[in-house]
Specification:
alpha/beta; seven-stranded parallel β-sheet; five-stranded parallel β-sheet; 12 helices; 12 strands; about 15% strand; globular
C-alpha cells in the first residue's frame, strides 16, 4: 500500500525503511505535522501514518476520507489525539501500536527519579566548572521509601519491579487490580491514600476524562511536603499551573517530566535559536529541582524496531486480509 508518514524525522525513516524490507509498501515521508492545513498534502496514498502530536480531529479526518485514505495507522500506543467518533462515522479505521517496550519508558522514569534525587544534573554542570563541593547535592536513600504507582499496566508493572529491586515499599492505584503485582507485595489503595502516603508518585496511566489533571491543586494538597512526582505518561495528567505553585511552596520537592500538557507545539523540534513562547514551560525550566525531557522515554532501539514492525504489520494485515488486529474502537 502507499503510505504517507507525517511528522517524520531521519530516525523514523531509518527504522521504517528497514522494517519495510519484508512488507514492500510504498513509503512517502512528510516532515510536517498532520493538521487541517497539511492534510491536503495527501495525493494518492491509501494509508496515513501519524504520531502523537499530530492532529486527527473531525476536520482532518474528513479531508483524509475525501482523499480516499482507507486507514489511519498510529505509530504510538496513545490515541487521545484522534476523534474516534468522527473516524467511526467516516468508516475510517484506526490502528495503533499497543505495546512497544515497557522497559524503555519504565527505565526512563527511574532515570529521572535517580537524577533528580541525587542531583546528578546539577553535579554534572558544577564539576565542569571546576566546583567539586557537595553543598546542595544531598539526596535520600530509595531503599525503604514508599513509591506510589498510578496505573499498573505493562509499563507500571515494569517500573514496580525496578522499585521493588531497590527495596522500596510499593503502593498502587488502578481501576483493575493486577494479581501478579499483589503477589510481589504491592498493596492497592485508593487514590487519596496513595497521595497521602507516597514519598514518590509515578504516573503510568492513560489520558481520559477521568485522569485529565489527575494531579491538581486538590490532590497536591493531600500529598506529603516535598513529594517527588514523575510523569512519563501523558502531559495532561498534570495541571501545570497547580504544580508550579506547589513547587514554589515546597509541596513538590522534585518533579520529573518527560511529557507536558502543551507539548504538541514544541516537543521533537529544535527551538534552540528561538525564544520559547510558552510561559508555563519556561517557568518550569527555571526550577533547579525540575527535569524536563522531550518525550524521549520511548526512544530506544528496541522500541523503534517494534514500533516500525508492528505499524507495518498492521497495514499489511489490513491490505491482505482486511484484518485489523490492533484497531482502536469507540464504545
Amino acid at each position: 500500500m502507499k503510505i504517507a508518514f507525517f511528522n517524520t524525522k531521519s530516525y523514523d525513516q531509518r527504522y521504517f525503511d528497514s522494517a519495510n524490507q519484508e512488507h514492500g509498501h510504498e513509503l512517502h515521508y512528510i516532515p510536517s505535522h498532520l493538521n487541517s492545513e497539511t492534510a491536503h498534502l495527501i495525493k494518492d496514498e491509501e494509508v496515513v501514518c501519524a504520531f502523537i502530536n499530530d492532529s486527527l480531529n473531525a476536520e482532518v479526518l474528513t479531508t483524509l476520507k475525501s482523499k480516499d485514505v482507507k486507514l489511519i495507522a498510529l505509530r504510538s500506543a496513545g490515541f487521545n489525539h484522534v476523534d474516534l467518533v468522527a473516524a467511526k462515522n467516516l468508516d475510517l479505521p484506526v490502528v495503533r501500536v499497543p505495546t512497544y517496550s515497557p522497559y524503555a519508558v519504565a527505565e526512563h522514569a527511574v532515570g529521572l527519579l535517580l537524577c533528580l534525587n541525587r542531583k546528578i544534573h546539577r553535579a554534572f554542570n558544577r564539576v565542569r566548572e571546576g566546583d567539586f563541593s557537595l553543598h546542595n547535592l544531598m539526596g535520600f536513600d530509595m531503599h525503604g521509601k514508599t513509591i506510589g504507582v498510578i496505573g499498573t499496566g505493562k509499563i507500571g508493572q515494569t517500573f514496580i519491579k525496578i522499585m521493588l529491586g531497590f527495596g522500596c515499599k510499593v503502593i498502587a492505584y488502578d481501576i483493575c487490580v493486577n494479581e501478579e503485582c499483589q503477589k510481589k507485595g504491592v498493596e492497592y489503595v485508593s487514590l487519596e491514600t496513595l497521595f497521602a502516603q507516597a514519598n514518590v508518585i509515578s504516573l503510568h496511566c492513560p489520558l481520559n476524562e477521568a485522569t485529565h489533571h489527575l494531579i491538581n491543586q486538590d490532590s497536591l494538597n493531600l500529598m506529603q511536603d516535598g513529594v517527588t512526582i514523575i510523569n512519563t505518561s501523558r502531559g495532561k495528567l498534570i495541571d501545570t499551573k497547580a504544580v508550579i505553585q506547589a513547587l514554589k511552596r515546597g509541596k513538590v520537592g522534585l518533579l520529573g517530566l518527560d511529557v507536558y500538557e502543551e507539548e504538541e507545539a514544541l516537543f521533537f523540534e529544535d527551538f534552540s535559536d528561538s525564544v520559547i513562547q510558552d510561559d508555563q514551560l519556561s517557568r518550569l525550566l527555571t526550577f533547579p529541582n525540575v527535569i524536563v525531557t522531550s518525550h524521549q522515554a520511548f526512544f530506544t532501539e528496541e522500541a523503534m524496531q517494534k514500533i516500525a514492525g508492528v505499524t507495518l504489520n498492521n497495514i499489511t494485515e489490513f491490505a491482505t486480509h482486511g484484518v485489523i488486529q490492533n484497531q482502536v474502537t469507540v464504545n
